[in-house]
Amino acid sequence: MPKFLVTGTYTAEGLRGLQTDKASGRRRALKKAVAGLGGKLESIHYCFGEDDIVIIVDMPSNASAAAVSIAAASSGVVRVKVSPLLTVDEVDEALEMAPSYRPPGVKGFGN
After folding, report:
1. Does the pLDDT at position 110 exceed 60?
2. Would you give the distance in Å from CA 55 to the centre of its chain?
3. Which pTM was predicted?
4. Are 37 and 64 in contact (CB under 8 A)?
């Protein structure tokens, strides 16, 4: 099942909600939402800096990952970014498939 990295930044209202629900309450809610779409919550971490929360989920498809992201973002209390994660084998496969490519206006670049 594809893995996704989800990062989020809470608004002030979202942080107040986190204080009320506690981190464990948010984990339960997220686990239920992800499982409802056939996915699995692998890990959830809170942090400080640019992001407030970092999550790794296994989801059956891009569409199911997008559905969770849309549901969270539409709440208005968290800004969400979702990035698909590739395995080492998938990157090696992509490197083997790499087409010949020349960027616009650049001569002598690529194969």
Report:
1. no
2. 7
3. 0.85
4. yes
